[in-house]
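I am still getting used to backbone structure tokens and would like to learn alongside you. To get us started, please write out a protein record for me. Once you have written the record down, we can walk along the chain together.
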Amino acid sequence: MGYDKSLYKPLFDAVWRGDWNEAKEFHTLHPDAIRARHSYSNKTALCMATDLEHEHIVEVLVQLMSEEDLEIRDNNGWTALALAASRGNIKMVECMVRKSKKIIDLC
């Protein structure tokens, strides 16, 4: 993907803090940020929110993402669904599986 990763830093900072309002403002200005990856971890905002168990952010991001976006993996090969399952967070798992049943096969 040809984009300036530093452009998306405010999104990742907001997700890190669990601040959906700020993340939403950034997403409104940069809708393609939904697929952007963090420069170090290669995680999307969804993977980061899942990793940090920010359920409120996960739910909204899943709604905004396509089924294919849910298949994005981090540097360790983990999808957001795999991260949610590894934490035993049933609420986040159910949210993602409702969006795309086929992601179960990717875990």
